[in-house]
Amino acid sequence: MSNHENSLYSKAVLFAVVAAVTVLIGTIVTVFVPMFTAGMHPKNENLQPFTALQLAGRDIYQAEGCVNCHTQTVRPLKADVLRYGEYSKAGEFAYDRPFLWGSKRTGPDLARIGGKYPDEWHIQHFENPQAFFPKSNMPKYTWLKNKPVNAPETLAHMKALGFPYTEEDATALASATQLDALVAYMQVIGTSVARKEAIVVDASMIEAANPLAGKPEAIAEGQAIYKAECAGCHGQNAEGNIGASISDYAKGEPADTDTYITVANGLEGAMPAFAGQLSKDKIWSVVSYINSLK
Amino acid sequence: MNNEFHYDYKTVQGFVLSAIFWGVIGLVMGLLISAQLWDANLNFGEYFSYGRLRTLHVNVLAYGLGIGAEFGIFYYIVMRLTKRPLVLPKLARFHLWLFNVGMVLATLSLFAGMNQSLEYAEFEWPIDIAIVILWVLFAINVLGNVFTRKEKNMYVSLWYVIATIITVAILYIVNNLAIPASLTKSYHLFAGVNSANVEWWYGHNAVGFLFTTPILAMFYYFLPKSTGLPIYSHRLSIISFWSLIFAYLWTGAHHLVYTPLPDWIQTLGIAFTLFLIAPSWGSVVNGYFTVDRDWSKMRTNYLTKFFIVGITFYGLQTIQGPSQGIRVISSLIHYTDWVPGHVHMGTMGWVTMVICASVYYMIPAMYKTEIYSQKLANIHFWIVLIGQLMFSITMWITGIQQGAMWKMTNADGSLQYTFMETLVRNYPYWQMRTVAGVIFVVGMLFFVYNVLMTIKKGNDLAKQAA
């Protein structure tokens, strides 16, 4: 074939042109054409551009390579929605340059992290993730609290992106640390979609009394779950930290069903919901453990 | 240097040695980050934390080892196949110099956290510009040689070289279009869903045109050179080449399965990904049938096994990859350690295997001597093979385990495992992976030693002759 005197393989310029056209066909169909259609530029109505502090935080998120371990897209799959919340919508990312969906979940997805925990949780967790999850492999980000945000540079970034900001924003930025900025970014991620838990529990869905009340093995399991998931906020010995003291709470002799529902549904902006990732038995075990503290 | 065609081998030699240097740095980084994954205490402050070092590991190996070796090996192949020295040898020397300066700056910039957060395109815009300049310098020499070649027909390897040069230029420039905000920071010109689509069109094809087509160019050149057996079917080479470079560019969206990217782009990506098995296996079959004429070459020629095992891993990679694109499989293994297992089969089993074999062929040829030790080369082969298999297999196991644990639900509809419970089950496998990495790196050190000793032997002989 190519041994013919005048084949494509003896004409380098023609060959290069044909090769370029060949690779451009798929490129044009799947990338260049869609780029100019409205479908590729959706925007949720209530989506706001990043504030200066949030953008500074997003810059830090990029600089620290957070995307290496954390995705920001919840797939429309049952398990993803149970674990993380409402699946990601195309219109949530109109101000994301670049997108930060990621490709690896060494740590959990962060698409619904905004508003899941109070600020103080993030502050302490960045300082020492192992205080919350003893076996976590997340690095400690201890230097962020000591480093100021580069305010003039961040404002230049805001201008480059055409995001609006006020004089007050600029002043506030000047006294912010990198940690403040990163936390501000955490708290805005995914918030243009209303927070919705896959499982929301009410009294009619659970037993009227704790079926595992007082059982030693349930108390032991409840304690193990407490250490793994709750101690970061409520203290290793239930003495309280970011969240309330659970010993004090237990002393108030709350109804088992109230404790169950609080653990299951969380508290808006203060405590995450656990109904999606703890079975009924596990939550009742936690209730048993809490009761054992009074 | 004097030789039959007065080829300028100094630049080729420089690139090979540079690639080895950057390769060792990237491999050591890889060992450190592999250990950081199971022991967070191994993160040492800002500059040596996982988020920065993982980026560095990927880029130093992709750009330093991979592309560094490709520059050198392509210059070699192109000179031989065009039967003429480089059109601008001094420019090639400058290219080598700029490459190393650029790599130093690029490495420092990633340490400093200048990171676009686009996979395989992490470098910020000043480094991007340097990379484009490097690519243009490279293209001038290579295309200059091709256009003024002394051999009428272009051999298969040259097709892959030309396709690589054109396609990488398009991919790299488009995906790195950005709004510069300062010297160290820019924002992707594309936003949200569109940003994702452009990035993975780039990301998948960066793999295709930096770690597939260049390696095929080496394979098609060095396999016949090493064995003395011509490629089995020229017709199959033609069909494989055109269908490969046509289909590749459609497939990026298989990285975005179940994301908010429009479904039709995802589905089209998956469909073309499945089609891509055919041209990939075209080259695999061509390689097998080439050696099929005389399988004793596997014993008598020490390089044959590198190429045959390399193309076998390419074959496995190109079956596994398309499988991963299928929605139901993606839903299980995407975002887990299965994927690094997949990637490292390609990089450690296919890319590095063929690059090393090509270097083993070129170095004695350029220094007019024999390889320092075939025995050491054989030891290198077996050690890296063991290390790579252990790496990939442990990652596949733990990836499936974690993907399954993420999905498992209780009778009441809640999830069976918390995220932490699924994470800690990776640790034993991650520890085994570190061991696998150490084994692989030891194997690579045998390679480095062998190459350096061969160069020394060649230089000593040249001195004696003078």
Q: DSSP strand (E) fraction of chain A?
A: under 5%
Total helical elements of chain B: 17
Describe the oligomeric state of these chains in a short phrase: heterodimer
Secondary-structure-based class of chain A equals mainly alpha
Nearest-angstrom radius of gyration of chain A?
A: 25 Å
Coarse morphology of chain A: globular
The CATH level-2 architecture of the largest domain in chain A is identified as Orthogonal Bundle
Overall 3D shape of chain B: globular
Unreliable sequence segments of chain B: none
SSE series of chain B: HHHHHEEHHHHHHHHHHHH
Report the mean per-residue pLDDT of chain B as an integer.
Answer: 96
Short description:
The complex is a heterodimer of chains A (294) and B (466). With 294 residues, chain A is mostly helical.
Protein model, in words:
Chain A has 294 residues and is mainly alpha-helical. In chain A, helix 2 crosses helix 6 and helix 4 (119-127) packs across helix 8 (178-188). Chain A folds into 3 domains: 8-40; 52-188, Cytochrome c-like domain (Cytochrome Bc1 Complex, Chain D, domain 2, Orthogonal Bundle), CATH 1.10.760.10; 203-291, Cytochrome c-like domain (Cytochrome Bc1 Complex, Chain D, domain 2), CATH 1.10.760.10. Chain A has helices at residues 12-35, 52-63, 78-84, 119-127, 129-132, 151-161, 167-174, 178-188, 216-234, 246-251, 256-265, 280-291. In chain B, helix 2 runs parallel beside helix 14. Chain B is an all-alpha fold and 466 residues long. Chain B has a domain at 1-157. At the A-B interface, helix 1, helix 2, helix 3 and helix 6 of A face helix 2, helix 4, helix 5, strand 1 and strand 2 of B.
Q: Mind sketching the topology for me?
A:
The complex is a heterodimer of chains A (294) and B (466).
Chain A: H1 12-35, H2 52-63, H3 78-84, H4 119-127, H5 129-132, H6 151-161, H7 167-174, H8 178-188, H9 216-234, H10 246-251, H11 256-265, H12 280-291
Helix pairs in contact in A: 2-6, 2-8, 4-8, 9-12, 11-12
Chain B: H1 9-36, H2 50-82, H3 89-111, H4 125-147, H5 156-175, E1 178-182, E2 185-188, H6 192-211, H7 213-227, H8 234-248, H9 263-275, H10 277-292, H11 297-300, H12 304-325, H13 327-333, H14 338-366, H15 374-407, H16 419-424, H17 427-465
Antiparallel strand pairs in B: 1-2
